[in-house]
């Protein structure tokens, strides 16, 4: 029995196979706010902007609207997995930026002493 895919069907997401003998690569998982999980196998010396762009393209998101966090700290696109000390199996959170904050002028200041 063969399986065929419709043109509109997405390819199944497969977890990359780990290569314990190759220390130059790391397998990471990107968790979306919607509960989605996308797996990547990246070279430790490649800038993470490549992963960020690929994730946003896969999820149909605009890169500028997403913040990527590793252990609660923001990741810059020019950083590498090596610089961040990432290990096989690390998880990156992809969160939507939240707008907010004043912007308006302060009209009244109250002090209750």
Any key phrases for this structure?
disordered N terminus; mainly beta; 25% strand; ubl conjugation pathway; 113 residues; Ubiquitin-like_domsf; Ubiquitin-like (UB roll); 1 helix; Small ubiquitin-related modifier; 5-stranded mixed sheet; Rad60/SUMO-like_dom; single chain; globular
Plain-language structure description:
By secondary structure, the protein is mainly beta. The chain has a domain at 25-93: Phosphatidylinositol 3-kinase Catalytic Subunit, Chain A, domain 1 (Ubiquitin-like (UB roll), Roll), CATH 3.10.20. The chain is 10% helix and 25% strand. The chain has one helix and five strands. It has one helix at residues 49-59, and strands at residues 25-32, 37-43, 66-70, 73-74, 91-96. It has a five-stranded mixed sheet with strand order 2-1-5-3-4, with helices on one face. Strand 1 (25-32) and strand 2 (37-43) form a beta hairpin. The longest helix is centred in the middle third of the chain and has 11 residues, at 49-59. The termini are far apart. The relative contact order is 0.20. Residues 1-12 have low confidence and may be disordered. This is Small ubiquitin-related modifier. It is found in: Nucleus.
Layout: helices, strands, pairs:
Blueprint: E1 25-32, E2 37-43, H1 49-59, E3 66-70, E4 73-74, E5 91-96
